[in-house]
Amino acid sequence: MNARMLQGIRILSFTHFLQGPSASQLLADLGAEVIKVEPVNGSFERAWSAPDNFVGDDSTFFILANRNVKSIAIDLKAQDLKPALEELIKSADVLIESFRPGAMNRLGLGYEDAREINPRLIYCSLSGYGSDGPYKNRPGQDVLIQAMSGLAAATGGANQPPTPAGASLVDQHAAVLGTMGILAALFKRERTSEGTHIESNLLNAALDLQIEPLGYFLNGAIPSRSPSNISSGYYKAPYGVFETKDGYICLSINSPQVLAMALNDPWFNGIEAADELDRREEINTRVAKHIKERSSSELTAVFEENNIWYAPVNSYQEVVNDPQVLHNESFLDIELRNDQQAKVLAHPVKYDGRRPDLHSAPPLLGQHTREVLESVGYTHQEIEQLFADRQILLADQEVRRDG
């Protein structure tokens, strides 16, 4: 029962890809009953994984963002299921959707439709660019947003092409922002009994990730990409990744006087504090020359001794074996069907010293269709008829058929 702060909250999740499922999973980790509403042929992420990486029959892409949720599989266009969807909306506290703008309206499930059914409903729309505007129909995809938001152009040296990050960080940040909005709206509803329409999108998330550099730019500071690979258009040197004799190491800002002592080079003592920004390329180039002449282990010892702000440049293999990462209990083991084991990132926050427990593995398609429909008043016979008419999928029926 650790960290089940949202127990008793029912959330309908009309989501796919990463932004929406990740937001839903964060809330499910905290004890909310999250019902993933899927088409009868399953959500996209069940059958796709970027490197074709599957654990048994399960897509890693599905596993990593769908724990602790329930799955119902229904034909959203079937007229016979309109009453079921209305009853589900009546029973829900939150609805999350990540379809293209307008898609939920066409299904009769848009915000205004849902609010008519349940005025207390908190409705969260997750999209690429927002629900309206000139880009609303463009494909919202992480690397595309990194490019158009300025994030890729701000990354890399002067002689390198614009460089997107090697992770879907915009998707994940947008998910967290959407989750923040939902939690704020739940708190508001406790005081006012009113629902709220929340919108989070990838473009806003990408801009929010750049709160510092865009803040400087908006107030007249024009960035310049660094020919010596300083990892910021604004910071003094040293700042970024440097090549050692046998690898790489990362340095953050350190005063010239500290550098003089650590690198045994009195030249740095001649740098006045007022000149550090103007001479940042000169400083960075000299630091790079010193670092390339020494091994990573030698530099680590020197930097530790002199309280230099540094970090190793770790591969993923080194990350997953890092003592602090392991101490923080950053990974979670999940037992899947057929005794398959998967490992994923755990919920990122601790509550009273603990991360939320795993209470259910990523669901089979339609695993909870029967349970959820029964919870809104459908009889066994009605559910079986919907299944016979191929308007819903029942995982228990499919198991029996396969057997």
What does this molecule look like?
By secondary structure, this protein is of the alpha/beta class. The protein has two domains: 10-209 and 326-402, Rossmann fold (3-Layer(aba) Sandwich); 226-243 and 248-312, formyl-coa transferase, domain 3. Helix content is 37%, strand content 15%. The strands form four sheets. It has a seven-stranded mixed sheet, with helices on both faces. Strands 9-10-11 form a three-stranded antiparallel sheet, with helices on one face. A hairpin with a 2-residue loop joins strand 3 (54-55) and strand 4. The longest helix is centred in the middle third of the chain and has 24 residues, at 169-192.
Total discrete domains? 2
Radius of gyration: 26 Å
Q: What is the number of beta strands? A: 14
Mean pLDDT over the full residue set = 94
CATH architecture of the largest domain: 3-Layer(aba) Sandwich
